[in-house]
Amino acid sequence: MKSCEICGGKGWVKKIVKDKEFVSRCECYRRKHVESLIDNSGIPPKFKDASIDGFITDIVSNNNSLEKAKEIANKFWENFINEKGQVNEIGIIFIGPPGVGKTHLATAILKKVIEEYSIRGIFVNLPSLFVQLNSTLTQGEDISYILDPIKTSLLTVIDDLGAQRVTHWTAEVLYEILNYRYNYALPTIFTTCYSLEPLSSDSSVSLKSRIPDLVLSRIYEMAVPVFIDGVDFRSEIISYRNRKKL
Ligand SMILES: Nc1ncnc2c1ncn2[C@@H]1O[C@H](COP(=O)(O)OP(=O)(O)OP(=O)(O)O)[C@@H](O)[C@H]1O
Ligand SMILES: [Mg+2]
Ligand SMILES: [Zn+2]
User: Fold this and answer.
1) CATH number at residue 116
2) Of 8, 51, 4, the residue nearest 32 (C-alpha)
3) Going by CA atoms, what residue is nearest to atom 26 of ligand 1?
4) Most ligand 1 atoms within 8 A of CB, residue of 103, 161, 207 to mutate
5) Scanning 3, 30, 113, 205, which has its CA 20 to 30 A from the CA of 13?
6) Can you tell me the distance from the alpha carbon of 91 to that of 71, in angstroms, rounded to the nearest whole number?
7) Is residue 18 part of a domain?
């Protein structure tokens, strides 16, 4: 790796203030720290380059839900720390059909928050988490080293909420994670393809049929719903690129 031109790779720089010499951290030190926080965040390689600025909002006309979602994403990272210097506890739940950019925006926000505030953040895809927990338990190992960072990180993204298997065990683990984050006022960003209907609803495509009431009730308080009703970007991207001559 190329050594830093400012500090020669030492990570410290000398400064002279009022004739006195001080040492302070070089900018490259913070950059490397942020890079390692992002590498350890669990963001999948596909989304390592996803950014809020790169979120296209004019893929189809007559749809301002993409523009609104992007605006909320920007507000979220800007207001991540409030005037009192505390982490703002209200998260986001992105709701919409497949391919509309929910995971793109959620990972882009997480990356931006890590870059801006140098905090530890975690991305977890919920169905994959349960597969991993299951195989860890089958090997007779403890799962707390997997669950603890998800519970305690300053920002956690829970991707594909509702797409996990629905069992007593998955319900208990979800409750453990979200009840912890709720009690410690830690913000969470969710993505889901399931609708967020009132607890009284009994629709089969509603989150209510996929997660326990105790968890859903907390999510209402923990996260602002953001509905994205665009088109499947995966199928639209070719005609978009042709139109824009990209
Ligand atoms: N508005 C957008 N601007 C730029 N890229 C986008 C946009 N929407 C989606 N994409 C890209 O399209 C692909 C699919 O998006 P993404 O995975 O975020 O969708 P999703 O809503 O999470 O879908 P699913 O519910 O199937 O997980 C990704 O490569 C993503 O980066
Ligand atoms: Mg997704
Ligand atoms: Zn340096």
Assistant:
1) 3.40.50.300
2) 4
3) 98
4) 103
5) 113
6) 14
7) no
CA of 108 to the centre of ligand 1 (A): 11
Contact 156, 186 (CB under 8 A): yes
pTM score of the predicted model: 0.91
Is 45 a domain residue?
no
Whether 56 lines ligand 1, by a CB cut-off of 6 Å, is yes
Q: For residue 19, is it within any domain?
A: no
Same domain assignment for residues 4 and 90: no
Domain limits for position 192: 50-244
Structural domain tally of the chain?
Answer: 2
Q: From the CB of residue 199, how many other CB atoms can be counted at a distance below 10 Å?
A: 11
- The string of pLDDT tens digits covering residues 37-66 is 999 999 999 999 999 999 999 877 667 999
Contact (CB, 8 A) for 74 and 207? no
